[in-house]
Amino acid sequence: MTISFLENAPLASLNSFGVMASAARLVTLDDSADVLEAIDASAAHGPRLILGGGTNLLFTADFEGTILRIQTTGRRILDERADGVLVEAEAGEPWDPFVQWTLAQGLCGLENLSLIPGSAGASPIQNIGAYGVEMRESFAGLTAIDLSSGAAREFAPEDCGLDYRDSLFRHPDGLRWLIVRVRFRLSREPRLRLDYGDLRAELERAGCDMPTPTDVASAVSAIRRRRLPDPAVLGNAGSFFKNPVVAKAQAQALCARYPGLACWPVQDGVKLSAAWMIERCGWKGAREGDAGVHAEHALVLVNHGHASGAQLLALAMRIRASVMDLFGVLLEPEPRII
Ligand SMILES: Cc1cc2nc3c(=O)[nH]c(=O)nc-3n(C[C@H](O)[C@H](O)[C@H](O)COP(=O)(O)OP(=O)(O)OC[C@H]3O[C@@H](n4cnc5c(N)ncnc54)[C@H](O)[C@@H]3O)c2cc1C
Q1: What mean pLDDT is predicted for residues 135-159?
Q2: Residue nearest (by alpha carbon) to ligand 1 atom 34
Q3: If one looks up domain 75-186 in CATH, what number appears?
Q4: Spatial distance between the Cα atoms of 228 and 95, rounded to a whole number of angstroms
Q5: For range 223-250, the mean pLDDT
Q6: Is the minimum distance from the CB of 55 to ligand 1 under 6 angstroms?
Q7: Residue 1: its pLDDT value, please?
Q8: I want to staple 109 with a disulfide (CB 3.0 to 4.6 A). Which of 104, 130, 186, 338 is the partner?
């Protein structure tokens, strides 16, 4: 036996909300060769939870089973073809250093996703996205192991059900897959995407008239550092709610009634700004004990100190109810609620 399980493991430093909770058992895996042994040894000990960087989940109670904490690192170029360069990351590889490594290899495609916290292995779980780009645009597949049988499977992109902040792996059927490696097809030809928000303006301010992918990564990182609370200082999990997608007729009625409501047409309807609706309901900067809504970002719930996961969830549910009352729109949490 090369792995060891920690009993009654504290989780406060392993989740970006910084909420206090514990796990009955926790095993940290930094070698992919140990994954099967850990799956086997945890099979008879209640439910299992896979943990990456802990930046997209909320513990509302102690976890009564085993946490498999994935810390395996490694990244490599697998092949180079006319249609791009195939790169692979181990699941525990921290996301932003992986993105910066791809840029250092002269590869373009992930620059807008710079500085998103968390691990490479979690990137498909909610199809991470930022600054007008989603990971699915360069995603080339993954390798996962079935927790129930220990069998490995290769997933092609079309097998993963990637959608806006969604994938097969967020749904009951998909929770049994432990992702061990992810792959991306990247390009040596820059195809920059600069039209989102104030990215172009940030590049102009930095004096980049002919930006490179690395310039874009730096600009995205600079904006994010300015705008988003650092979980090391103020506990949070980024956006707490997804932007809801509603039918066109409902969006038209809402936009006629609330002219400031930002909305974007998408394939299956119209996406509405959850932040705008939450702010309109008066929640921006609100605080209930140590659970609060960020003063600059209505979409970001924060832990001012000692909020429990249950208190943060209760606040989230009150926000959701008031948005439903005023707008008739249901908000769906982005982090996984444990
Ligand atoms: C300040 C801040 C800003 C953020 N900004 C963004 C943003 O711009 N865009 C965005 O999309 N997200 C953003 N997020 C959310 C988060 O960073 C991403 O969702 C990230 O991919 C989560 O990675 P993680 O390793 O921390 O996952 P965790 O929080 O550890 O896990 C999240 C989920 O993925 C599962 N999981 C994790 N690893 C694996 C694995 N190897 N195999 C199977 N399942 C796994 C877990 O079981 C859980 O269900 C932000 C979060 C913070 C704190």
Answers
A1: 97
A2: 122
A3: 3.30.465.10
A4: 17
A5: 96
A6: yes
A7: 54
A8: 186
Answer yes or no: is pLDDT of 206 > 60: yes
Residues tagged active-site: 165, 239, 334
pLDDT grade, residue 97 (50/70/90)?
very high
* Strand segments (E) across the chain: 6-10, 22-29, 48-51, 57-58, 63-70, 75-81, 84-90, 129-130, 133-134, 139-146, 152-155, 177-186, 235-239, 245-246, 263-266, 269-272, 287-288, 291-293, 300-303, 336-337
Q: Where are the domains of the chain?
A: 6-70, 75-186, 235-337
Q: Under CATH, which number does the domain 235-337 receive? A: 3.90.78.10
Atom of ligand 1 nearest to the CA of 230: 1
- Residue range 6-70 forms a domain whose CATH class is alpha beta
Tell which atom from ligand 1 comes closest to the C-alpha of 180.
41
Burial 263-279 (b: 16+ CB within 10 A, else e): beeeeebbbbbbbbbbb
